[in-house]
Amino acid sequence: MESWPPSRAGAERFVAEAARQDLLPLLFVQDGLPDAVLAALEAQRMWWRLHTALTAVRIEAQRKLSTALADEPFVFLKGGDFMHRLYPRPELRPMNDLDLLVPSHRMRAVCERLERQGLTPHYPGAPATLVRSYHERAFIMDDVLVEVHQSFIQRPRHRVDYDGIWRRRVPLETTTIKAARLDDVDALAYQALTMAVDQFVVPLLRCVDFWLLAHVAPGVVAAAAERACEWRIAHAFYGALRQTARALPEFLTPEVEAAMAAVVTPRERRFLDRWVLPARPPKGHDSRPALRLWRKFWLMDATDRRLAFLCYYAWASAAGRFPGRRGRVLS
């Protein structure tokens, strides 16, 4: 590792790595940086201006969505929530899309309303995404990708209590957008699940989100560990704790160690550490399908969940290839 302060070349590599990990906005507002890093950042000044403008576009999209769905229950997820309550300014939390959760029984009505409001449906292309039971639908709104979820992920993979989520939701902490967010415990458990869905091949920003969520109030980590067991996402929650501690060693406190012990057995911990979780921060998206499937399989908690997911995916993929099957495939 190069000494600090870095050389000019080292500073350029440092800034490039911050950009790859989605941390460049935080670097722009960091005080006390060496001159070489400041010079490397200056070369990114145009990116910063564009990023700030795009953040304003996404916030405006949030306002429009909150108006269009004013009488519908929904919550903003991930970046659409975090940019307002975890970071001092919204532009410090970069995001590529807006995610929102609606009750499953309102999914079709919400999507039809958004289409009437002028949003354009966007289909990723995989056959399984075309069935009505798929967990999300995507739209384009003013060049912003909007993903409407009726569940966090395919329901057979876990046992998430969505009724409880809707009872516990709280107002989004912004004066300009009338919407809701997940409560603190649900948000931390869900963040772990989103990281596991990507097999923990995620930018460091996602670990920073997890760190900040874990510190919003005393006792959140322990409560989220209990919720993870209830939702059958214990492996995912352990993985998020473990990977965040690997990337940010100061995260590994006695509370975190206790939460790890609460969600997995020592044998499960050894197996996940050795055979499932990436050993070091990834250099990019892993293109090996077999490895992704292996990790996805073992990040589910139990054999019945794994088999249920495989059966569902096989059915959804087949149904998506035959759009004539009414009631199952989107028209």
**Element pattern in H and E:** HHHHEHEHEEEHEEHHHHHHHH
- The total beta strand count reads 7
- Binned strand content: 5-15%
- Describe the main β-sheet briefly: 7 strands, mixed
What share of residues is helical? 40-55%
Structural class: alpha/beta
**Count of helical regions:** 15
Describe the global form. globular
What distance lies between the first and last C-alpha atoms, to the nearest angstrom?
A: 55 Å
The averaged pLDDT comes out at 91
Low-confidence spans? none
Strand order of the largest sheet: 3-4-5-2-1-7-6
Q: Can you give a write-up of this model?
A:
With 331 residues, the protein is of the alpha/beta class. The chain is built from 15 helices and seven strands. It has a seven-stranded mixed sheet with strand order 3-4-5-2-1-7-6. Helix 8 crosses helix 11 and helix 11 packs antiparallel against helix 12. It starts with 7 loop residues before the first helix and ends in an 11-residue tail after the last helix.
